Amino acid sequence: GDTTAEIAWSAVDGAQSYTVSYARPENDFLTARVVAHTTVAAAQLCGLSPGVSYVVEVQAVGCSTSSPSGIVCSTKTGGVVGPFAALKLATTGQPLQAVTHLAAKVDNHSPTTVLLSWKTPPYKQNMSWKYKIVWGSSVSEFRRNNSSAFTSGSTYTVRNLHACQTYLLAVMIAGPIGYGPAVQVQVITGEDPLAPPRLVTTTVNDLIMTVQWQPPCSLFFSSTNTSPKPNDNSSSGSNASTDTTTASTRYLLSIT
User: Where is the composition biased (Low complexity) (predicted)?
Assistant: First the structure.
């Protein structure tokens, strides 16, 4: 069928069960293999994508002989040895297409919010698609699907991102008939005045503590030093307050 398949193989004498596994080649983000177990020499695979070729691997568990199908077992009960027996199959139906016209825009009123929009891909029949959105600020985070969401619409709002950070985002069909290929886009979030500073350091010389930092978006400014001169503030007494607002990236606290 379009999203299901039935496979069968020659039974192995003495096998207690079989392990069935396969990869998902239809989408780069489906990195985990699907693994199932059965006690009979047949299995039904569900949740596949239409028009995709799969390679299914089968191992027998806890047997002591080999079969003509190439499935080999160990002499130890419960043991599994290779090689796997590979079974090739292909689902029917029209392969799913990637979304089109994917666009990412930083919200003018919220610089750490990204607005995504795309168009429904063409298909032979009208479908109520479900989409998966994935995002991350590094390739590893992006590929691990650490941050993801689902929607049935053709727009999505990603909120609470870090300021002045490059993000990778991807959108793909995720149902109701399998997964389609992913489309990626890159965006840089804007400056947020409430974002925490970067590279905060402190140094102490006698009774003077110097705290220095950089704005979260300093990498986007000119390398020429145009920042104001250090703002030296001091307070007397052991209970000196450090709750001082300053536009400088340096602050001195003196205790006398």
Answer: 231-245
- In the chain, how long is the greatest CA-to-CA distance? 90
Last-in-domain residue among 168, 188, 208: 188
> Which amino acid, one-letter code, is at 213?
W
Burial class (CB within 10 angstroms; exposed 0-12, middle 13-18, buried 19+) of 164: buried
**pLDDT tens digits, 11-30:** 887 778 888 999 999 988 88
In this structure, are 173 and 245 located in the same domain? no
Domain endpoint, select from 90, 116, 136? 90
Q: Compute φ and ψ for 208, nearest 5 degrees.
A: -120, 125
Contacts of 138 (CB under 8 A, 6+ apart): none
Convert the pLDDT of each residue in 189-216 to its tens digit: 998 877 777 788 999 888 888 888 887 7
Task: Provide the CB-side half-sphere exposure for 197 (13 A, CA).
Answer: 13
- The reply to whether 144 and 207 lie within a common domain is no
Q: What is the pLDDT of residues 122-172, one digit of tens each?
A: 888 888 999 999 999 988 888 887 899 999 999 999 999 988 889 999 999
What is the domain count for the chain? 3
- Is residue 193 situated within a structural domain? no
Interatomic CA distance for residues 115 and 92, integer angstroms? 36
Domain match, 148 and 225 both: no
- Compute the C-alpha angle 198/231/234, nearest 5°: 110
- Residue 220's SS3 state is helix
